[in-house]
Write a structure and sequence with these properties.
alpha/beta; Spore Coat Polysaccharide Biosynthesis Protein SpsA, Chain A; 8 strands; 51% helix; 16% strand; disordered C terminus; binds uridine-5'-diphosphate; binds magnesium ion
Length: 329
């Protein structure tokens, strides 16, 4: 079978309220463009009717492919599975909730034809998202920029087009805690942005509650930066200086015969030292936990079944997709 020019990767988790409209918008868009295409849906262990609805659509449209996970593995692993199986010369990652409008993909394709390898969508305006979500997102992207050793664009999610050589390079990165947008920056090649207004979610609720967002943020920072570990050195130096100053003062106070009122100082010093140590133990724990999970070398996800795709080997192991990459490039 000939490879399509365009692959769309769409992770889907409990989105039964959206599937019909998504299908309509996709087909309207795909019939307009002048490219051969496929759409790879990843059903991330949905518990509603999502899976059945996708399989029904795929039964009628062979260019719709479905990968169903055996349980919920999370958005980043869903798009990873999509990249492992997408065959297009250009591959686009987009959300199912129509917050990444298919029409913007036309602009991305134009940039790709100009010779760019990665075209990411940059949000100029975000509609229908709470002030809290927007403020935390803005703060997070700026913090990341300060902490990460690689350049990652501001206000950019996973909505992006990647050329096949970028996708093949991504297949070689098999780490467990994945922050896909930064991994794409890490791969390099010629990258550019298209700006778009991010519309409101079409229906249903966000699948990224605060708890998941926090975990995602910590993954993002720890998988690309060891600056938090270095914090220990700086905190240690700082508390060392404080300790020297305090001891000088304590000796002076003792000599001057004023030792009794020292209780408060001791309490404060002990509390400060204890909190600094606990913070650093926590940060060490974050990294050690990740080392532990990496050394297990588990597959990143487990595929339950597929439709319109050659039978999967069931899992994605560390070596296999990289082998595919070297064979085909
Ligand atoms: N999603 C997923 N697995 C998850 C959570 C989300 O595949 O565990 C999908 C979801 O169906 C949607 C996309 O990831 O297509 C983005 O999720 P959502 O729109 O809820 O995030 P938000 O836009 O609110 O950040
Ligand atoms: Mg959304």
């Amino acid at each position: 079978m000939q490879r399509p020019a365009l692959s769309l990767i769409i992770p889907v988790y409990n989105e039964e309220a959206i599937i019909a409209e998504l299908d309509r918008r996709l087909k309207a868009f795909l019939s307009e463009i002048d490219e051969t295409w496929e759409v790879v849906f990843i059903d991330d262990g949905s518990r509603d009717r999502t899976s059945e609805m996708l399989n029904e659509l795929a039964a009628a449209e062979p260019r719709y492919k479905v990968i169903s996970f055996s349980r919920n593995f999370g958005h980043q692993l869903a798009i990873t599975a999509g990249m492992d199986r997408a065959e297009g010369d250009a591959v686009v990652i987009m959300d199912a909730d129509l917050q990444d409008p298919p029409e913007v993909v036309t602009e991305m394709i134009a940039k790709w034809r100009e010779g760019y390898d990665v075209v990411y969508g940059q949000r100029s305006v975000r509609h229908g998202e709470s002030v809290f979500k927007r403020a935390t997102a803005a703060a997070f992207y700026r913090l990341l920029r300060a902490l990460l050793p690689i350049e990652i664009p501001l206000d950019t999610g996973d909505f992006r087009l990647m050329s096949r050589r970028v996708v093949l390079s991504m297949r070689a990165l098999r780490e467990q805690h994945r922050f896909v947008r930064a991994m794409v920056s890490w791969v390099g090649f010629k990258q550019t942005a298209v700006r778009y207004e991010r519309p409101e979610r079409f229906a249903g609720e966000t699948k990224y509650p605060l708890r998941k967002m926090l975990r995602f943020a910590i993954d993002g920072i720890t998988s690309f930066s060891i600056i938090p570990l270095r914090l220990a050195t700086w905190l240690g130096l700082f508390s060392g200086v404080v300790a020297i100053v305090t001891s000088g003062w304590a000796v002076y106070a003792a000599v001057a015969g004023e030792t009794v009122p020292g209780w408060a100082t001791i309490m404060i010093a002990v509390a400060l030292a204890a909190s600094a140590q606990l913070i650093m133990t926590g940060i060490l724990g974050e990294y050690i936990g990740r080392i532990y999970e990496e050394v297990k070398r588990r597959p990143l996800y487990v595929v339950g079944e597929t439709q319109n795709l050659p039978p999967a080997d069931g899992t994605s192991t560390a070596a296999e997709p990289a082998a595919v990459a070297s064979q085909e490039s």
